[in-house]
Structure formats: C-alpha cells, structure tokens
Amino acid sequence: MSHSLNECVSFLRPRRNGNLWLSFKHAGEGVLYAIRTQLNFRIHLVATVLVLIMGTWLRLPGTSWAILVLMIGLVLVTEMMNTAAEALVDLASPDYHPLAKLVKDVAAGAVLLIALTSVVVGLIVLGPPLLARLGWVL
Q1: Rounded-to-integer distance, Cα 124 and Cα 68, Å
Q2: Of the candidates 9, 6, 133, 4, which has an alpha carbon nearest to the alpha carbon of residue 60?
C-alpha cells in the first residue's frame, strides 16, 4: 500500500480551527489568568521588573541580557506549568488522593528549583557589575 507525501505529513496540518490569532488569544487568556489568580506569578513579575531596571542601570552587555531573559522566561513558564498541573489535578481528582498531592508537590518543587537557580544566576550576572558600579573591588 502506497501513501502520498501529503498523507504522510497530514499530522502537520492544524486539526482545530486553524485560526492562528485565536490560538494567540487563548494563550493570552492563559497568561492573564496566571496574573489574576496566582500570587507567586505576580511576585515573579515584580522580581522581573526589578531585574530589568537593575540590568538597564548597570548597562549590561547583550550576553548578560540573554542569560537574564532566559532565566526570567524559565521561571514564568515553570510557574504557569505548575498552575496548569494544579488545575488538571483538581479536575481529575477533586477529592484528596496521595498521587494528586505528589503531582502538585513535584510541580511546585520544579518552580522552587528554577526560582533558586535564577537567583544564583542573577547574582552571578548582576553581582560583579553592581559591585563595580558601587566602587567595591572584587
């Protein structure tokens, strides 16, 4: 049995509505949901603004900006994945179940690990230029 190339790559075609703008709208609704309902997400956003202000004040080079933006993105994405995992667990297991708790704990642990990692990376990236700007010798 022979298949055409078109049939073989049919999985690449969108199966839903195919409306790219609608997909972006739904994604934006997810981000707004996280902002409205998740205190930790808002805390990460405040930290983001502070890091961006400090980076601008320190006139960081492009590579430092790339590292900071990557870490900021990882923290925010991980926080949103945690929110999604919690919602899905609540939907699938409205009553207490030890496996439901495990999923929530592991997802929250992932956020904690990336947040702590971002603090260390932030200190490595921002620390030396900050100390230099303050006139402290390393």
Answers
A1: 10
A2: 133
**Domain 39-133, CATH:** 1.10.287.3610
47: left (phi over 0), alpha (psi -120 to 50) or beta: alpha
Of residues 7, 29, 79, 86, which has the active-site annotation?
A: 79
CB 38 within 8 A of CB 79: yes
The pTM (predicted TM-score) of the whole model is 0.84
Question: Does residue 79 have an active-site annotation?
Answer: yes
Domain boundaries, the chain: 39-133
Helix and strand numbers (H, E) in the chain are 5, 0
How much is the pLDDT for 7? 62
